[in-house]
Amino acid sequence: MGDVTKKKMTRREFLKTSGKTAGLIGGAIAFPTVLRSTAGAAGDMVKVGIMFSLSGPYAPAGTDRTDGALLAIEELNAKGGLLGRKIESFVRDDQANPGVAATRTKELVEKEQINFLVGGNTSATVPAMKDQTAPKKVIFMVGCMADTTFAAPLYDRTLFHIYPSAWMSANVMGRYAAKNFGKKWYFLIADYAWGWENFNSYSAVLNEFNGTNLGVTGHPLSASDFSPYITKIMALKPEVLIVVNGGRDQINSWKQLREFGAFEKMKVVATILYYSSVLGAGVDSVMGGYGATPFYWEDPIESTQKFVEKFIKKHNRPPSDDNAVGYEGMMELASAAERVKSLDSEKIIPAMEEHRFQWTRTPEYWRKCDHQAIHDLLVVTPKKPQKKYDIFQIADKMGGEKIARPCHEVGLK
């Protein structure tokens, strides 16, 4: 690697270099993906692990969630840290791989002895991470949809779910689609746990509205050619196509749906319409589509605009929904620790339960039975930008307890 002691590498340079290295050696990063703050002695630090997917199909979302958590830590440290101690951040890449996620989490918990973990890009990696944090009573702030992990028998009280659940998002988008677009649906989903969690949620909504399921197709992660699926879907003439994927898969599938003329034949609906994906695909590629998002930077509410202002000052661009999720998760952990004047998870957990907060969007609270953040979701549709990054129009807003699945339905009291 040369003489790395002469110049301190920035986080962006690190990610760029590690990505190139991964490509040269078949996807395995050749050195530990860890960044550490340098202020103060390690014994005087509060240690926070931040682990999302910084490579692989969900890298755009993972990178944004990481940036959001790091902004929160920077803000907290500028105000004196947490409990009078500086916060030390450990950033690692789970590569959207459960095995890698388990190994990296074990290192963070046992070697680095982190106090908290903020992370989780996929419902496939979250259980592997939880298996390492829960036995050590390390609070794990989950930043993705991971419904199965927040249901019996996998759920653990050390878990908190800052991102909307698949049930919440499918509930919002399913109801919006049924009321506005039609009740003959086809499903194109990422073929792993998260995709099927969404499918089950949408199916419940479709049954409630007496709709018709024309079929479901699962596609592998990192798919490049969606044409066989699209040809089949268009032949069935659904009124609504529900697309459940993210990252590069969302970019590729929506661009190809545009090329095949699908948007002129049916309404295309996403569980989450990722801000980063729309920027990656280009607004013209997804024009006419709809999706949910927990945050949009042009929502005029005060908490959103305060967060937007500080994020632009740091990154010279507006924040995405994933930036907001990473930021909120970190700020909520710090807030609870300050309220109880302790890093003891047994004191922090009850302080978070039912706690109401508002960092980047409308008011939220932690539901006690499953530690799900209960909040609003926005229904958005792409629009012709009037200015840079101005890509969504807010079509509707739904939220609260009514869109979350009752805890007794997933085996929790």
Choose one word for the global shape: globular
Rg, alpha carbons:
21 Å
Beta-strand proportion: 15-25%
Number of strands: 15
How would you explain this protein's 3D organization?
- The chain has 413 residues and is α/β, with parallel strands linked by helices.
- It has helices at residues 11-24, 59-78, 98-111, 126-133, 166-180, 193-208, 227-236, 247-259, 275-281, 283-286, 302-315, 321-340, 345-352, and strands at 46-52, 87-93, 116-119, 139-142, 159-161, 184-190, 212-219, 240-244, 267-272, 290-293, 356-357, 364-366, 373-374, 376-382, 392-399.
- The strands form 3 sheets. The chain has a 7-stranded mixed β-sheet with strand order 7-6-8-9-10-14-15, sandwiched between helices. Strands 2-1-3-4-5 form a 5-stranded parallel β-sheet, with helices on both faces. A 3-stranded antiparallel β-sheet has the order 11-12-13, with no helix packed on it.
- α2 runs parallel beside α12 (321-340), α5 (166-180) crosses α6 (193-208) and α12 packs across α13 (345-352).
- The longest helix has 20 residues, at 59-78.
- It is globular, with a radius of gyration of 21 Å.
- The relative contact order is 0.12.
Q: What is the structure about, briefly put?
A:
This protein has 413 residues and is α/β, with parallel strands linked by helices.
Write the layout of secondary structure elements.
Elements: H1 11-24, E1 46-52, H2 59-78, E2 87-93, H3 98-111, E3 116-119, H4 126-133, E4 139-142, E5 159-161, H5 166-180, E6 184-190, H6 193-208, E7 212-219, H7 227-236, E8 240-244, H8 247-259, E9 267-272, H9 275-281, H10 283-286, E10 290-293, H11 302-315, H12 321-340, H13 345-352, E11 356-357, E12 364-366, E13 373-374, E14 376-382, E15 392-399
Parallel strand pairs: 1-2, 1-3, 3-4, 4-5, 6-7, 6-8, 8-9, 9-10
Antiparallel strand pairs: 10-14, 11-12, 12-13, 14-15
